[in-house]
Amino acid sequence: MKNYKLKINGNDYNVDINEVEGQEIKLNVNGTEYVVTVDQEIKQQPKPMARPVAAPAAQVAPAAGGVQKASAPAAAGAKVTTPLPGTILDVYVNVGDAVKAGQTVVLLEAMKMENNIEADTDGTVKEVKVRKGDSVLEGDVLVVIG
């Protein structure tokens, strides 16, 4: 799901694009669902894999406020990814911060639950790829730790 904040003729709109299939777009504008038809088929970009097949699966806690862990080692550093689509409620680290394995780096709202996303490794934050309010998809990179 992609989220856009638009201003049209001085009015603010919060637009969530939920699904794109052929010429049809299912979206939500300020809480109201719409199906929009466009004049040309929209070609989807293939979703890049955020972690290699051999990476450990995400651990999902069953209760609200539970802990979610997801990361993938890479040559440029460990990538903390999101195990579920959702909205970033808070980012607890900045570039240059030292983090420890198990430290919460991002708070994610997914399926009406708040989920702590933790670092799986010790290191220094090299990149923060999200901001508070961003919508993310499963596998999106949130933070890179080197």
Helix content: under 10%
**Which value, in Å, is the CA radius of gyration?**
17 Å
* Low-confidence regions: 49-75
Strand content: over 45%
List the helices and strands in order: EEEEEEEEEEEEEEE
Number of helices: 0
Mean pLDDT: 79
The largest β sheet comes out as: 6 strands, mixed
Secondary structure class reads mainly beta
Termini separation: 28 Å
Shape: elongated
Number of strands: 15
Placed side by side, the strands forming the largest sheet appear as 5-6-12-11-9-14
Q: Any descriptors?
A:
146 residues; 0% helix; six-stranded mixed sheet; five-stranded antiparallel sheet; mainly beta
Report on the structure:
By secondary structure, the protein is mainly beta. It is 0% helix and 51% strand. It has strands at residues 2-8, 11-21, 24-29, 32-37, 59-60, 67-69, 71-72, 78-81, 86-91, 98-99, 104-110, 113-118, 123-128, 135-136, 141-145. It has a six-stranded mixed beta sheet, with no helix packed on it. A five-stranded antiparallel beta sheet has the order 7-8-15-13-10, with no helix packed on it. β5 (59-60) and β6 form a beta hairpin.
Topology:
Layout: E1 2-8, E2 11-21, E3 24-29, E4 32-37, E5 59-60, E6 67-69, E7 71-72, E8 78-81, E9 86-91, E10 98-99, E11 104-110, E12 113-118, E13 123-128, E14 135-136, E15 141-145
In short:
By secondary structure, the protein is an all-beta fold. It has no helices and 15 strands. The protein has a six-stranded mixed beta sheet with strand order 5-6-12-11-9-14, with no helix packed on it.
